[in-house]
Design goal:
- It contains 29 helices and 21 strands.
- The protein is α/β, with parallel strands linked by helices.
- Strands 1, 2, 5, 6, 7, 8, 9, 10, 14 and 15 form a ten-stranded mixed beta sheet that branches. The chain has a six-stranded parallel beta sheet with strand order 18-17-16-19-20-21, sandwiched between helices. Strands 11-13-12 form a three-stranded antiparallel beta sheet.
- Helix 12 packs across helix 13.
- The protein is globular and about 80 Å long.
């Protein structure tokens, strides 16, 4: 279907027509490709073009270039050093897009060009694109970036949410408030996706007894393309225009409609764009209706239901991230049948067989079995993985009924532990150290364990200077945000105080930043408030804690935890050594994961599937202090951070919390604080830097996205690719 045209003005087209000299025409190309977000050469192009606007736009080159006066471009066109930098960045971008010598081509052959379709409900790419809520989106974004670096022909499929995720504000009393703001996509690096015929792509998705239209938007990331669905079209009914309005918004009925559009509409969109994927990767169960559309396609080409399901299984990869039963989407069968009414086609006579793929007993009991999206994915995927070794065991135990006759140890669920895209998350200060002492090729060797032994060569004084610089950068950022809240929002003095304006730039700083929800136990460190106050307020060895994170709009308990943290931040008992930084997003995260000294994580075990924020901190020389859950259960070596091990025979929540808090306090008092404040004759915390080095050396190669994506290629994508090449349809 062909739309009448894009709904937004392309600011770069306007810029090209009105301001850019011919010599700078490819600034458009560079700004609209998010490859620049993890490549310092490209970032320097924009930073040196106008450093003030670069900061004011929160590092958004599309908006920045639109705001620049024409004379600035004329000056740049005469600036030979800047032009040389610009040309080098463009050459690197072209190489990233078209290099024939990649890991993928070496592993799979030059003819392996059919795409890998990667479906996810959210993607965290850059703060100018708030189409993510948290860890799932960050993982998806890092997966796509690493796929580009490795040369995978990957296409991401998701939603373009016109209102994104909410902006968090904190009331004068300390309560979270959610603001949903309609986004101006012309300020972001997105463009209407064009079909092979050159028309804006709009797909029709059957939903119940009606048809909903979805426009498709394109985002470029080097070699990778993201295609995002958006139902906010004038041709749709008002209620259908709202289906893609917000990430994880609305009730259960809205949720299932979104998932039909993502799964069924996503497959139809790929066909309309001319793609024939060889592998289909479902990142969590939200996209499981992909298998419905694919089975229907196979049946329409003459296969039986059983043969169609077998083919779909061989080419479907499923990653589950959720170790809690309530976190898996499940719907009453009546609701499923209602919204799939227009999707069956030739699959209609096999309706019951398909619905049986999703049947799973309601964990809450009482209402009988539900249609469970994770159960559908598990029964329809040839390869399923959890996101850490411990999570694999939890998943196998949770879903034992899916594989009758198998014990949890015999479950087909594999473990591919999450990783982080190192070039994205390493701070400039640490990257500079790695350039000087490891070599400029470290970005291509992030999974090479022997290579990272060279961290030992970084001199103590230079490593410590980088860590101090990053802490000072964090505090400058915190103070500037507080000033803007004071001036722009007339924030109360208490709110300004709570943001960390009294923090000591030389004190040991602990960071806790993640979604605010009960199982992550954000208040555990306050279990014995008096003991904590003594730790924080030691005259010669002060400690301070900075918190950040959002509670889901429907999570009242999470909001109460946040409120309590705010109250602690303004409590004189803690001497201004507790802070809460609001509106946690990718921009804030970059400052926190590199600027604090210790990364704290204390979920209720085993409810942390993996976690990745601690990985981001560790590769910046910020050691992890955590419960042995998720990735830390396999990442802790005894020398690269600290393990919180509460000991109790009573497994009640209160007893476990008390034991874990006791372990946390003891670690702070006996190990963490003494190591940080022990200084050699040169004033260097040598014992502390030993832990910092071990953190970088052990975490970077084992928990890099490069290692993770290569694991997916070897265990999942390559077998799916081989199966796809043998299929007749």
């Amino acid at each position: 279907m062909v739309a009448q045209g894009p709904r937004t003005i392309n600011k770069m087209e306007h810029l090209l027509q009105s301001a850019l000299p011919e010599r700078l025409a490819r600034l458009n190309d560079l700004a609209y490709d998010l490859w620049w977000t993890w490549n310092p050469l490209a970032r320097d192009v924009f930073k040196r073009l106008d450093s003030s606007l670069w900061r004011q736009t929160a590092h958004n080159p599309v908006l920045m270039l639109f705001l620049m006066p024409a004379e600035s471009f004329q000056r740049a066109a005469q600036d030979e050093p800047w032009l040389e930098l610009f040309d080098r960045a463009l050459a690197a971008l072209d190489a990233a897009r078209h290099n024939a010598q990649t890991f993928w081509s070496a592993r799979m052959g030059a003819e392996a060009t059919r795409p890998i379709a990667y479906f996810s409900a959210e993607f965290a790419l850059h703060q100018s694109l708030p189409i993510y809520a948290g860890g799932l989106g960050v993982l998806a974004g890092d997966h796509c970036k690493e796929a580009s670096d490795l040369g995978l022909p990957l296409i991401g499929v998701g939603f373009m949410y016109p209102q994104g995720y909410f902006k968090q504000r904190v009331s004068p009393e300390g309560w979270q408030q959610e603001d949903y703001v309609r986004l101006d996509w012309s300020d972001a690096p997105v463009e209407p996706a064009l079909t092979p015929a050159g028309h804006p792509c709009v797909v029709a998705v059957p939903l119940g007894s009606r048809t909903v239209l979805a426009q498709v938007w394109r985002i470029r990331m080097g070699r990778v393309t993201l295609l995002l669905l958006d139902t906010d079209l004038e041709e749709n009914a008002p209620w259908d225009r709202e289906l893609s309005a917000r990430l994880y918004g609305g009730d259960r009925e809205t949720r299932i409609q979104q998932e039909v559009i993502l799964g069924v509409g996503g497959v139809r969109m790929l066909r309309a764009m001319g793609y024939d994927p060889a592998a289909w990767h479902l990142n969590e169960g939200h996209a499981a209706f992909v298998v419905l559309q694919r089975i229907r396609e196979h049946i329409e080409q003459g296969l039986s239901f059983e043969a169609a399901l077998d083919d779909v299984k061989k080419t479907t990869v499923f990653t589950t991230h959720t170790p809690v039963s309530a976190g898996h989407d499940a719907f009453p069968f009546q609701l499923v049948e209602q919204h799939l009414a227009g999707c069956w086609g030739d699959l209609g006579e096999h309706r019951d067989a398909f619905l049986a793929l999703g049947m799973y007993d309601n964990p809450g009991g009482g209402s009988g079995p539900l249609f469970n999206m994770t159960a559908l994915a598990l029964r329809s995927a040839g390869f399923t993985n959890a996101v850490s070794k411990l999570h694999r065991d939890v998943t196998a135990d949770m879903w034992t009924p899916i594989w009758p006759g198998n014990t949890p140890s015999e479950s087909p669920v594999a473990a591919i532990t999450n990783g982080v895209h190192v070039p994205t998350w390493v701070s400039p200060a640490m990257a500079s150290l790695y350039d000087r002492f490891l070599g400029h090729d470290w970005r291509e060797r992030t999974n090479d364990q022997s290579f990272w032994e060279a961290v030992a060569a970084i001199p103590d004084d230079q490593l410590w200077a980088a860590r101090q610089l990053l802490r000072n950068d964090l505090f400058s950022f915190i103070r500037e945000r507080a000033r803007l809240r004071w001036a722009g929002e007339h924030a109360t003095p208490q709110r300004v105080l709570s943001a960390g304006t009294l923090f000591d730039p030389n004190a040991l700083t602990i960071g806790f930043a993640r979604r605010f929800t009960s199982y992550k136990r954000p208040e555990l460190i306050f279990h014995d408030a008096g003991r904590l106050a003594k730790i924080l307020n030691q005259a010669r060895r002060p400690v301070q804690i900075v918190f950040a994170g959002k509670a889901h709009p429907a999570d009242d308990m999470g909001k109460h935890h946040l409120h309590h943290i705010f109250k602690r931040a303004i409590d004189p008992v803690f001497g201004g050594r507790v802070a809460f930084v609001d509106d946690y997003d990718l921009h804030v995260a970059h400052y926190l994961v590199s600027g604090v000294d210790v990364w704290l994580n204390n979920p209720r075990k085993p409810l942390e599937a993996s976690g990745t924020s601690g990985m981001k901190a560790a590769i910046n020389g910020v050691p992890h202090l955590s419960i042995g859950d998720g990735w830390w259960a396999e990442g802790y070596t005894g020398a690269n951070g600290w393990l919180i091990e509460g000991v109790t025979d009573d497994r009640s929540h209160d007893a476990v919390d008390a034991a874990d808090a006791e372990s946390l306090y003891a670690l702070l008092e006996e190990q963490v604080v003494p190591a940080f404040y022990h200084r050699d004759r040169a004033g260097i915390p040598d014992r502390w830097l030993d832990v910092v080095r071990q953190s970088i050396r052990t975490v970077t190669p084992r928990f890099s996205a490069r290692r993770m994506v290569i694991d997916y290629v070897e265990q999942a994508y390559a077998p799916a690719y081989a199966a796809a090449t043998q299929m007749k349809v």
